[in-house]
Write a structure and sequence with these properties.
872 residues, seven-stranded mixed β-sheet, 30 strands, elongated
Length: 872
């Protein structure tokens, strides 16, 4: 029995392992085909936000100069005059910033216009050419990286629109018509239009867009001038790069002054519209152009862009930055997709901190990683405020001195000299001290006049007197306040510059938009950290990876498949060995544990990106496959058990077998059992008198009562033999008290038969009496015949034959219940027996002791005997 059960269990387990392996293979294939990528990227977002305990600190060489809400309040509403950005570049240069990266697209010419609006408090009417001023400041610094937009997509004209020239057409003309280089813009545009018109397709309508062609021409010529210092030729074959369909460079003065022109386009989102990766290099006009973060970090490290190398490393490309001291800095990348095409040189953004917030990404406990550009421009703001206050001071003093022409002329002369000096000029404080002396004397005279006049009743004053009184009050109170605002201006500027020096000295400063108030013009990108992350933070993260080597690398395809296989095996093991109700908990624990391993041990500790969705789905699908198989097999076994045993044993026994399929063994096996045969005395003659119909009714009533009595003590009904019954105890569930339960069942049968007789249930058949034979011993029990369809669950053996012979012997011996000596011995105490003696029954040569069961030592009516099951 145990061998058969073990063989069947091993077969089921092999099938379940095969199902789990099949489900795992399907999941692995889906992962390789990219069907799980969208969900996988979501798990990477979770890891980026939650796991940063062991991530390296950000580079101390990176500072973000934010155009934030404070700057928009204190400096100027956007768009700023580019002279203000020029002043920021100069202040950063003065503070020692080694490299400045402008993450601001300055492609529209601004030309000459007032530095501040006429309504501005400073009232500065000077007209300044912002583009030239910014270009000059950038050139003076010498290490400024300017932003250009490289578009990855080509905007096709809509249906019905006229044909428009393509970039390739303009580039072809530039390459093959050298006369264009010497033309002015108008003549060049005319030449381009003529060439494009000649090359238009036959029959196609041509409507030249002069402004678009002119802009494209100027931009192309401008970016080509920056190509040598800002780009590199692509390496040999074997690489695929993100290709730009167009380039929008900054204004010409900025192109001429910048050290590098770099790409700031971030329109390369992954599934879900989230920018998680950026191409570090984009191909345009036969050259590879770096992204802003890479270019700025390379400049800081002293690695010229034109000398960068690209090497193949495994499945990805490695960017090699040669440093000046014969050292090299390597930045590994991995393949990705841009606009649906597979490309090399893609960098997965490695955020230094999690937490789901972009602010503070590059800060450390010892220094801030973000500085408002208003702090950079604080000297300019101080000087601007001082000049505004000086203008008011001059106006008040001029009112007081208008009657003293000599004093007024002297003051005005000194004031002009003071305005010619910069506020941070060391001579400024000395020059202001002379003005301050005169202004304070004016304020003192006004205060003396007010003391002399006292506090006159305004109702008693004429309008002219009231105006005079108000003027003296303004002189007495306003002049000291204005003096206080101007005093120490150079010291405040020096202090502001000292603070800025401590923040940016020898560092890379990335200037970009971080304000939250003006969403319409803000440079915000949906990232793993937050849906509104400033684009400058992405470029800073790229620079941080270059400077620190902090790069998250994906594990290889084979390693990813190994992870799926391992989790699939775990899910299969859970399905085959864990109880059904605990399976979901175990699978959830396995998936959660794998996520923690991927997040803590791999993502955070060793910077590896392992798949989460594929292995988790592998474990879940493998477990589910095994569970479905188990449910189907168990359901089929349940139906089979119910069908086979429902008519044999009590419903309680059937339920036990269904809930414990290991107890159900239909295969023939040897067991110790007790067998019973019963028969009604003289029922054949009564049946002839009653006829067929009435006989069936009486017999049905009798058999129902006897069946209930037998099953109440764990009997298995073997078969009905007309008015006789064959039953046995001890199978299919092992019952160590089978003989005792058999005796209790027989006595219960006799009791119920007496009740039926007294109630007259059998009518004209008269009172019925029953003969019973009981025998015990080792028998073969199981499905005999052609299972499962043409078979019978029965017993075979000598004890079965003996029970049948003892039932017949009752007729000769005048007894009712005859039992073998083995039954008498196994039944134990609690019964009344009458020894009949040694009897030779038909079919047996030797005599055996026989006992008649007279009853229970204590009334057992209706008291069910215990059903004792063994371990089987």
């Amino acid at each position: 029995m145990k061998a058969a059960m073990g063989k069947r269990a091993r077969l089921m387990r092999r099938r379940q392992w095969a199902l789990g392996a099949g489900a795992t293979v399907v999941v692995g294939a889906a992962m390789l085909l990219g069907w799980l990528d969208r969900a996988e990227w979501v798990t990477r977002d979770w890891r980026a936000r939650w796991f940063d305990r062991w991530s390296p600190p950000p580079s101390p060489e990176i500072v973000i100069i934010g155009i934030d809400d404070r700057a928009l309040r204190e400096v100027q509403t956007w768009p700023w005059h580019r002279a203000i950005l020029a002043e920021a570049v100069r202040e950063l240069a003065r503070a020692g910033a080694k490299v400045v990266a402008l993450d601001v697209l300055l492609d529209d010419p601004q030309g000459a216009r007032p530095l501040f609006d006429s309504a501005d408090a400073a009232g500065d009417p000077s007209v300044v050419d912002g583009d030239k001023t910014l270009g000059a400041a950038v050139a003076e610094h010498g290490s400024v990286v300017a932003a250009a937009r490289f578009g990855y997509r080509v905007d096709e004209p809509g249906e019905g629109e006229a044909w428009a020239p393509s970039l390739s057409s303009v580039l072809f003309l530039l390459d093959h018509d050298p006369t264009i280089d010497g033309m002015d813009e108008r003549a060049a545009v005319t030449a381009v239009i003529r060439g494009l018109a000649q090359g238009a397709a036959a029959g196609g309508s041509f409507r030249p867009d002069r402004m678009r062609i002119a802009r494209l021409l100027v931009q192309t010529k401008s970016i080509r001038r920056a190509a040598r210092a800002s780009s590199m030729p692509p390496p040999g074959r074997g690489f695929a790069w993100a290709k730009a369909a167009a380039c929008v460079p900054p204004v010409e003065p900025l192109v001429q002054g910048a050290a590098i022109i770099a790409n700031v386009s971030l329109d390369t989102p992954d599934p879900g519209g989230v920018v998680r990766r950026v191409p570090l290099l984009v191909e345009y006009d036969g050259r590879l152009w770096p992204t802003l973060g890479l270019a700025a970090a390379a400049r800081l490290a002293g690695a010229p862009i034109e000398k960068m190398r690209i090497e193949r490393r495994g499945n990805g490309a490695e960017i090699v930055l040669p440093l000046g001291n014969a050292e090299e800095r390597r930045l590994p990348t991995w393949p990705g997709r841009v606009d649906g095409s597979r490309v090399d040189g893609v960098h997965a953004i490695a955020w230094p901190h999690g937490g789901g917030a972009w602010l503070g990404q590059f800060s450390t406990p010892s220094r801030p990683g973000e500085v408002s550009i208003a702090a950079v421009l604080e000297p300019m703001l101080i000087a601007r405020g001082v000049r505004h206050n000086l203008a008011q001071l001059d106006e008040l003093v001029g009112i007081s001195l208008k009657t003293d022409e000599q004093a007024l002329a002297s003051y005005t002369s000194r004031s002009a000299a003071l305005r010619s000096l910069a506020v941070d000029d060391p001579r400024w404080d000395e020059a202001f001290a002379q003005q301050e002396e005169t202004a304070r004397q004016v304020a003192a005279n006004a205060a003396e006049f007010l003391r002399f006049t006292g506090e006159p009743d305004p109702a008693m004053l004429s309008p002219e007197d009231r105006r005079t009184l108000e003027t003296y009050q303004a002189l007495a109170t306003g002049i000291p306040a204005l003096i206080d605002e101007c005093t120490g201006a150079s010291g405040r500027i020096a202090a502001a510059r000292a603070r800025l020096h401590g923040l940016v000295n020898n560092r890379l400063c990335l200037i970009g938009w971080t304000a939250t108030s003006s969403v319409g013009v803000a440079d915000k990108v949906n990232t793993s950290l937050a849906p509104q992350t400033p684009g400058v933070y992405i470029h800073a993260a790229v620079a941080n990876s270059v400077l620190t080597g902090f790069v998250r690398r994906p594990i290889g395809a084979w390693a990813a498949l190994a992870c799926v296989a391992a989790m699939g095996l775990a899910g299969t093991a859970i399905g085959t060995r864990v109880r059904v109700e605990l399976g979901p908990v175990a699978v959830a624990a396995a998936v959660g544990g794998w996520f923690l391993i991927c997040g803590v041990a791999l993502w955070d500790a060793v910077w590896l990106v392992a798949p989460v969705v594929g292995p988790s789905l592998g474990a879940s699908s493998a477990w589910l496959s095994v569970m479905l198989h188990r449910l189907l097999v168990e359901q089929r076994a349940r139906r089979r058990t119910e069908e086979r045993f429902r008519s044999y044993v009590s419903p309680a026994v059937v339920d036990i077998l269904v809930e414990n399929p290991e107890l159900d063994s239909m295969a023939p096996q040897r067991r110790e059992l007790t067998v019973m045969f019963s028969d009604l005395v003289g029922f054949t003659g009564a049946a002839e008198r009653m006829g067929t119909a009435r006989t069936g009714e009486v017999l049905a009533r009798y058999l129902v009562a006897m069946t209930e009595a037998l099953q109440s003590h764990g009997a298995t009904i073997d078969k009905y033999l007309g008015d006789g019954i064959m039953a046995f105890w001890g199978a299919p569930i092992e019952d160590r008290g089978h003989a005792r339960n058999a005796c209790l069942s027989v006595l219960e049968m006799q009791r119920r038969l007496g009740e039926l007789n007294r109630a007259g249930e059998f009518g004209e058949a008269g009172p019925l009496s029953m003969r019973v034979g009981l025998a015990a011993g080792e028998l073969m029990v199981g499905d005999f015949g052609n299972p499962p369809r043409n078979s019978s669950y029965t017993v075979l053996g000598d004890a079965s034959n003996l029970a049948s012979r003892l039932e017949s012997a009752n007729r000769r011996l005048g007894t009712s219940i005859l039992a073998s000596a083995c039954v008498r011995e196994l039944a134990g105490d609690g019964f009344v027996w009458r020894k009949i003696g040694r009897v030779v029954v038909p079919g047996r040569r030797e005599a055996g002791e026989v006992f008649e069961l007279m009853g229970a030592a204590e009334p057992a009516g209706g008291i069910p005997g215990p059903l004792v099951t063994g371990s089987g």
